[in-house]
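Try this one yourself first.
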């Protein structure tokens, strides 16, 4: 029963990564533009950490790596959408 509660809590924290990523994309647009390449590397490293956590059956490593991945990829994705949708200029 305790293990199931840990897994449910882990998924709840992962779900919090989506609005946190949106919030970061809204308030840190300059940093996302300047460090875009390093954020992509961070996504790859966190995916590797998630795979290693899955293999080693280490829940903390798995969920923390997935949280980093969700927040980073969500903020980059929101930033890309903002760049594509530009408001028309008023003349």
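Now uncover the answer:
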């Amino acid at each position: 029963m305790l293990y199931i509660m840990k897994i449910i809590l882990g998924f709840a924290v992962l779900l919090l990564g989506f609005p946190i990523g949106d919030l970061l994309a809204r308030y840190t647009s300059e940093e996302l533009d300047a460090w875009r390449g390093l954020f992509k590397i961070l996504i790859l490293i966190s995916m590797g950490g998630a795979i290693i956590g899955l293999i080693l059956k280490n829940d903390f490593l798995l969920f923390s790596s997935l949280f980093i991945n969700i927040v980073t990829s969500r903020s980059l994705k929101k930033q890309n959408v903002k760049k594509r949708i530009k408001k028309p200029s008023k003349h």
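Discussion: The chain has one domain: 9-82. The chain has a mean pLDDT of 87.
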